[in-house]
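FORM 12-B: Structure-to-Sequence Request
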């Protein structure tokens, strides 16, 4: 919507692209559902596009590259195949969504984007700037031990249909390159801050994001109405079949000590929210 000012049409609602960069198992599915159901966000019913992670070969993401043959099986895969062919396709696609649906916000919430480097983040920002679209980025964090454990259960469920994982399996998963790139919150935030000004970055803590003050802050950041009635609708929760032994928790916490120390310095409330701190 716009109005005439000095003979020119002035757009009073800035077009906005929200780049969700994780973390995996830290509320990103809930976030997408919250945004998509707001009535303010242009979507194509796709949460994770997996464009930049696949092209950069972030650990375990190469399999996200879509082949021509795969693209012919499914509409969502056809879109992703098209977007992976050229960065310009990506930028033009989201500009098209905004115009086609007459919305002012659109998004790509792909958790493995936590591993994007600053050069790629800068190219994304500039690509949208050339189309007069502002970019903001959202990063949600969860206690590294809990995140790794939840991710291991999800991976087991995807492959075996069961969320029952042993301590050894959780530990091996937590120490893998795939998991590290998704759990080094300190590195992700440093890359984001090298490209985006502070007002364009939202960093939230999963353990408090459903409290009204945080929900309100997130909603304001994204340009959508606050809807506390959706707080209880948490998606993709993986059940805990068995507890982790203290020794396993300690090994994971110590592996991610740099993350705990970084977060404590920036977000001191995490010390009381994340159980992993007790094992350092």
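FORM 12-B RESPONSE
SEQUENCE OUT:
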């Amino acid at each position: 919507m716009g109005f005439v000012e000095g003979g020119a049409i002035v757009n009073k609602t800035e077009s906005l692209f929200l780049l969700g960069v994780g973390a995996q198992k830290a509320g990103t599915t809930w976030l997408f559902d919250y945004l998509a159901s707001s009535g303010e966000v242009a979507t194509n019913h796709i949460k994770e596009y997996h464009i930049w992670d696949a092209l950069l070969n972030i650990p375990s993401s190469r399999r996200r590259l879509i082949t021509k043959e795969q693209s012919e099986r499914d509409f969502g895969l056809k879109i992703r195949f098209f977007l992976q062919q050229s960065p310009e396709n990506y930028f033009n696609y989201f500009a098209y969504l905004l115009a086609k649906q007459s919305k002012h916000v659109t998004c790509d919430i792909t958790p493995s984007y936590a591993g994007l480097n600053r050069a790629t983040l800068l190219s994304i920002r500039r690509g949208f700037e050339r189309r007069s679209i502002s970019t903001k980025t959202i990063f949600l964090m969860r206690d590294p031990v809990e995140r790794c454990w939840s991710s291991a259960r999800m991976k087991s469920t995807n492959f075996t249909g069961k969320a029952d994982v042993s301590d050894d399996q959780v530990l091996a998963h937590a120490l893998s390159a795939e998991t590290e790139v998704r759990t080094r919150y300190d590195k992700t935030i440093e890359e984001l801050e090298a490209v985006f000004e502070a007002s364009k970055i939202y960093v939230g803590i999963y353990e408090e994001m459903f409290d009204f003050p945080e929900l309100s802050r997130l909603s304001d950041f994204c340009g959508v109405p606050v809807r506390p009635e959706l707080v209880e609708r948490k998606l993709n929760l993986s059940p805990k079949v068995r507890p982790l032994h203290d020794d396993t928790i300690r090994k994971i916490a110590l592996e991610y000590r740099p993350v705990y120390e970084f977060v404590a310095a920036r977000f001191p409330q995490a010390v009381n929210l994340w159980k992993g701190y007790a094992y350092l």
